[in-house]
Amino acid sequence: MNLKVRLSLMNFLQFAVWGAYLTSMGRYLGNIGIASEIGWFYSMQGVVSIFMPALMGIVADRWIPAQRLLGYCHLLAGVFMFATAYYGATAGDHVAFSTIFSLYTVSVAFYMPTLALTNSVAYSALSQAGMDTVKDFPPIRVFGTIGFIVTMWFVDLMGFQSNQYQFVTSGAISIILFLYTFSLPHCNISDKTEQKSLVDALGLRAFALFRQKRMAIFFIFSMLLGVSLQITNSFANPFLFSFKAIPEYANSFGVQHANILISLSQVSETCCILLIPFFMKRYGIKNVMLIAMCAWVLRFGLFGFGNPGMPGVLLFVLSMVVYGVAFDFFNISGSLFVDQSTDSGIRSSAQGLFMLMTNGVGATIGTIAAQAVINHYTFAMPLDGDVLTVGDWQSCWFVFAGYALLVGVSFALIFRPKKQKVN
């Protein structure tokens, strides 16, 4: 099979696992009575990303080939996602937060490292084949977004947004990807045998990148922008569903099929990935990331002004469109920047460090803080067998937009990247 096709299928399955529950889990958690704890579930993705991607990156650099480690992680993630669904089904109306949270946490602890490992596998395979990662990787990564969209639609159309079957879907795809990794190209591990320091032996040299002022500033701002990454994934679905409490919007498409409306974000992401090579070559990492930060301001602000009716729903649609720029121009270009700024011996570790700062520290702070803001402005309201989160959502979105604007202005003033030729 063609290398690009093989890597594209890997990315499709990788993000299909996540798309099954990431945008709809908040609605399910609300329905089982733990809406005020939604932020903890999403922040746990960040907590485990503080150490697991870096740890698995070290293992991939030193001991276990990245493609094999990718499979093992998915096997464990899938098993514990099945366990989460099983507990949710058997507990009924008596779901204990501690139990379902613990099972979910173990699953995402093994899933989150795979985001960096898939990048490492793709970069390694493309490099060994003599291909250009900047040119050839983005079209491959597009299929990850397509996979995410497919499972979002599947969960929506099957009526899984409010129940545990979204977790069953995710677990099944994880097991399929585990099996598929046996067909992926081999990734080399370090074969150096000379005397190593403790830092080298543990694979911690990636953290030495903080000694470079330029890289330290880049990673710090990656963390600050990472605060924004999971806010809409965590709360957009409960926000849209809250309009069910308003009779004129109760039967609107955005309320009844929130996942499909939100999936426009991923459609935009698919298109925007293809723009990255052009923007990276023409404008460089700083301007590309500034564009992403401006897009985050618009993403939140448009949510604040919109509603599911006409013409308000058009603002929601526009927010979905700018999400592609907000997410891709930060995540993908940042990953490419790290790949080009580090040597091959610590590349997997460096990718893990980037994940730590963004989906780890940044996303953890962001979701916990966002939950506090939302708990302050909203409250739970039972309605027709569902539990809605209603209140002053507009103020919440404006708070988030103001934060993104502050980060963008600071980044423009402080970050000074070295001019770098991108082939």
Total helices: the number is 16
Helicity range of the residues?
Answer: over 70%
What series of H and E elements makes up the topology? Answer: HHHHHHHHHHHHHHHEEH
Mean pLDDT metric: 87
The number of distinct β-strands equals 2
Radius of gyration from the alpha-carbon trace, in angstroms: 21 Å
**Computed structural class:** mainly alpha
Strand content: under 5%
Low-confidence stretches: none
In which order are the strands of the major sheet placed? 1-2
Q: Major sheet: size, sense and barrel closure?
A: 2 strands, antiparallel
Overall morphology? globular
N-to-C span: 27 Å
Walk me through what this model shows.
This protein is an all-alpha fold and 423 residues long. Helix content is 73%, strand content 3%. The chain has 16 helices and two strands. The chain has helices spanning 3-19, 25-31, 38-62, 66-91, 97-128, 133-157, 165-180, 198-201, 213-226, 231-241, 253-256, 258-273, 276-305, 312-341, 347-377, 393-414; strands spanning 378-383, 386-391. It has a two-stranded antiparallel sheet. A hairpin with a 2-residue loop joins strand 1 (378-383) and strand 2. Helix 1 runs antiparallel to helix 5 and helix 12 crosses helix 14. The protein is globular, with a radius of gyration of 21 Å. The chain starts with a helix and ends in a 9-residue tail after the last helix.
